[in-house]
Specification:
3 copies of one chain form a homotrimer. Chain A has 15 helices and 9 strands. Chain A is α/β, with parallel strands linked by helices and about 400 residues long. In chain A, α6 packs across α7 (about 205-215) and α7 (about 205-215) packs parallel to α8 (about 235-245). The first copy, chain A, starts with a helix and ends in a 7-residue tail after the last helix. Chains A, B, C: This is Knotted carbamoyltransferase YgeW.
């Protein structure tokens, strides 16, 4: 059972005033206290739900989801978070082929937001576009509210962009906080965020970038490992370096998976596409050069295939701390012999960590709900206490 | 802030008994009092929401939406209206290629309506079909309720048909009532409902028809302007003429945009397809003559292109009353140099009216909610007062 | 009006403890008392709704629907049932082309279920797969709950599988119980579950199988009739035989529609594909043999066409008890001269039974809701009484 009182006590010590009325784009735009507030509110909401206490703080209102790509898990996580708080989800699927911009974004954002309290967006496909698009939407509805068009300002939650995947990484962090018995116990722990081979192509960079951007703030020893040519966005590496310095942790990059796994407490082996290639692809899409895209895909698959040895095998796991590093993944993983012939992880490794992996994912709806909660309510502590006192049953029984 | 007490006082003077248990197809099938009741209830609901008071009058129940065409804005407006009242939306997308009829309509209408309190339909593509289809659905569920199949009669809201676009035009009207400081101030005001060039093809006639059918009832000077060959349905022109006579306003048609804009208080420049062409297209679809449709499209685009001078330019705006007519549009507009090379309106004109245009759109969810409210409740005034007294918070805070 | 007190009294006599926390796959896996409990709870919920009393027992929570095939009616029935109880529906459409399995099913089932209280699945296309898939999902979320991944165990409702269509057949039964004035009056009544000609191909076997598997438990004389070659699954025939023996009814198979209709109290003429052909088709899909599938379809349509005399005509109806047997169908029916040239039933027969047919369908949302209710609540009787006493209005008025 999650500890409600601990969560409230934690919250009472934190300064998160800045989150009220604001959006959530990137974890490194938030203060440490604000991140801690997300975890604490997530815990508090979970604790109430575990005790069958309703956390419906909206009697009506919409949560708008905007997906620029197919997404089952993120869709359900967002829908779950909205439902938990009493918002009804309306999906807006624009299709991944279109990149709307300018006037259209401003207008559409307002037209769908008359009753919207929150907007969740996933737009991770195009380098330099996803986060920018989210800002365009957020600016549009902020302005719409100021101009008297919208009665409320819908706050934005980044459900994955080209730069960061904050709801995933905050859920990952909540998971390891729980596994290691507290945030303070993460200090000095080594995490290997490493590339791994996958037979599929063009996986987004937002997870590795999000992980190095967030975990360096927790005083951890963060090692980013990938073959040459699989660099992530240089700006995010800079963020990671600065974060590590400030938190007393460390950040370094290596081209050896073994180096990264050596004595690691946590490993996060996962495929991604090289930043430069993703940028090139974005431009090709912009130019409508489908031939060029096809050619690039072929090249990238061939490039991937040169690094099949980058896999989280049983042998690799033996290199980690006591051979027992915690294995993380955002799921779905490419499991060797299960979902593909050769992939990111051995089936036996994956199997051993299935329950923790599922638990890792279980934090996401609560993290999203917490982000919404903190953006919409001026006194979250008071409101959470009120919910507990009222004790409205979630399920009558 | 919207004035709740004024809305209630207005309602208390009106006779709208006929709306209880009834559907909403065309504005000219409703009495003036009934239209006023829609605006008043829309205001009352908005006033309550602005004060964070819940207007959830349904504890459960479904609002069914039936779209025969893609639609983001109307979908969200209907979803917003339903959510505001406590109904959960279920979409039924039939695809625009199929025109269901007869037995199928009756059966499907009943099968999806066991828990439905309201059905919203958009079917604007085919002349002579859309409104007829709505009536078939409404008749089917009325009969289903009388036969004991349905425990309640779901009432129908026309979300756009081949004849009228009542939720749009009622929202347009609510907007100008607000902008001009009251319904009484609209008497004698000149509105130019004019065709405008667009590079796209086959835009529905429901907006111009809805506008001349509604605004002639408000004692306004309504001028319909279009190039020769862009006639709207003759029956609706007849309606407009009779309305004008009864209301002390006027209605006339002209083939000169300048004539219409001259001294106008309000302009509504918007593209549409000629009625005769839409009728032809409907028949071609009926015959499955895709070659014929392609040919017709080409012809229509060429015909459009002969009238590129029909645009709401800065020069045209100067012709209007003090050069400051209120610019209306149902959105999205074809903006010259923004959404197309040459379109309905200059970018600078559109920019100047963006905030009012967005506000115009903001009335639609409330207008839809008001139509539902008036169809479902025998004593709307009493219920609105009860909601205010109870003062249940929409958002806990 | 449905009788609430009778429903409660019925429930008080029944033993349905086993349903709490359990899934609903096949009617013959449930005891007679359990089936009666479904009908009684369905009646109780309907009675409350008829009196405008809310049956919202969930304040929040999701009902997940998983459709492996397009489905309007089942989708709306499930959505209606969830809405009635306070659950919000989230659809997961996987597309009918993919048969997910193993790891993927386990993972997806958990990932979408963090806030799910119920999962409804329709998967009727592939012999040997649909029911198995449902069990895989149910096992996955049961395990997820035991492992602490899911805070609640979502219970599964079979919305149609390759073996049974329990929500349809339970609704059919509720209908005839009502038409014949009580379950006890069904004893000895003859029902003809017969094949009928349809110009379409590959209709599922779940309805005829569900009907013979359920109605044989009610002490009825169940006759299954079809042309040679249209056999249903042999296992289900075995179930029907055993059921009949236990209930004092009877079950037999005939290749004569006349034989089945002779003196029947109830007729259920409906097309289906031969079991063996469906099995072959499943294998062809598994092998991706699209040529083979095409060929099989052609063969089956030709086979069907040899049995156009298997139709529920006026002449056939004259053979039934007093010429007035109750006509059942799961809808939509292939009506001769209406939805096709030659089909399952004469238009005049269908017309005469339209209202009862629609009523038959109206039981389905309540049957689904009852299945959910009985799986989620330990003391359904107490809860139903509580709902009645509280008397929260469904619609404020």
């Amino acid at each position: 059972m999650t500890d409600f009182n601990k969560a409230i006590k934690d919250l009472e010590k934190l300064d998160f005033k800045g989150m009220f009325g604001d959006d959530f784009f990137l974890t490194w735009e938030k203060s440490e206290d604000e991140l801690k507030a997300v975890w604490a509110v997530a815990d508090a909401l979970r604790a109430l739900r575990e005790r069958n206490i309703s956390t419906k703080v909206f009697d009506s209102g919409l949560g708008i989801s905007l997906f620029r790509d197919n997404s089952t898990r993120t869709r359900f996580s967002f829908a779950s978070a909205c439902n938990l708080l009493g918002l009804e989800v309306q999906d807006l699927d624009e299709g991944k082929s279109q990149i709307a911009h300018g006037e259209t974004v401003r207008e559409t954002a307002n037209m769908i937001s008359f009753m919207a309290d929150v907007i969740g967006i996933r737009d991770d496909m195009y380098i330099g576009k996803g986060n920018a698009y989210m800002h365009a939407v957020a600016d549009a509805v902020k302005e719409g509210n100021e101009d008297g068009v919208l009665e409320q300002r819908p706050n934005l939650v980044n459900l994955q962009c080209d730069i960061d995947h904050p709801t995933q990484c905050m859920a990952d962090a909540a998971h390891i906080i729980n596994e290691f018995g507290g945030l303070e116990n993460l200090k000095g722990k080594k995490i290997a965020m490493t590339w791994a081979y996958s037979p599929s192509y063009g996986k987004p960079l937002s997870v590795p970038q999000g992980v190095i951007g967030l975990f360096t703030r927790l005083g951890m020893e963060v090692v980013l490992a990938h073959p040459e040519g699989y660099e992530v966005m240089p700006e995010v590496e800079e963020v990671a370096k600065k974060n590590a310095q400030a938190s007393g942790g460390s950040f370094r990059r290596t081209n050896s998976m073994e180096d990264a796994f050596k004595d690691a407490d946590i490993v996060y082996p996962k495929s991604w596409a090289p930043f430069a290639a993703m940028e090139k692809r974005t431009n090709l899409y912009g130019e409508g050069d489908m031939e060029g895209i096809k050619k690039l895909e072929k090249e990238l698959l061939e490039q991937n295939a040169q690094h099949k040895d980058w896999a989280c095998t049983e042998d690799m796991m033996k290199l980690t701390k006591d051979g027992k590093a915690l294995y993380l993944h955002c799921l779905p993983a490419d499991i060797t012999g299960v979902s593909c012939d050769e992939g990111e992880v051995d089936a036996t490794v994956f199997d051993r960590y299935r329950v923790p992996l599922y638990k890792e994912a279980s934090y996401k709806p609560y993290v999203i709900a917490a982000m919404i909660f903190l953006s919409k309510f001026q006194d979250p502590v008071g409101l959470l206490k009120e919910l507990e006192e009222k004790g409205t049953k979630r399920v009558l029984r």
